[in-house]
Design goal:
mainly alpha
Length: 150
């Protein structure tokens, strides 16, 4: 009987773990989306989210490698009950791909707006510097670092 096969038990446990890891990634992608949509985004929070996702992806790769090893041993015995698990995981993978694509677009927009802000800051800095220079030339302002006691 198939249920008595210890390899099958291991594979089902592995699939359940993979499912949990995929759920965690889906949640992290939602968090990432919210962070990217937040104008006051703290870069450290964003980095922490990216690092956490990297850990989950690493976990996924380990689970996949282990699963494949066991799968190769019992391929011939497999029945259709595996197909249901595989279909669910495929659905989750598709969800993650869609989330990743959305977040990539948001990230591009976010960084574009950050670049624009930096440009505006630089531009206003330039205006301030020009104003300061023209004030110096017109004699309205004393140079700050000259010694007047000569």
């Amino acid at each position: 009987r198939m249920e008595k096969n210890p390899y099958l038990t291991i594979m089902i446990q592995s699939l359940k773990k993979k499912s949990a890891v995929l759920d965690a990634i889906i949640e992290l992608n939602i968090r990432q989306k919210e962070e990217l949509e937040n104008p006051g985004l703290d870069p450290d929070d964003f980095d922490a989210c990216v690092e956490e996702k990297a850990k989950q992806i690493e976990q996924l790769e380990l689970l996949d490698a282990g699963f494949q090893e066991v799968y190769d041993k019992i391929k011939a015995d497999l029945q259709t009950n595996q197909q249901e698990y595989i279909r669910r995981l495929t659905d989750k993978s598709a969800t993650i791909q869609a989330q990743e694509a959305r977040n990539k677009d948001l990230m591009t927009q976010k960084f574009a707006s950050v670049r624009k802000q930096v440009k505006e800051v630089r531009k206003s800095q330039k205006v301030v510097n020009q104003y300061y220079k023209s004030m110096m030339k017109s004699g309205y302002m004393e140079p700050q670092f000259t010694d007047n006691k000569k």
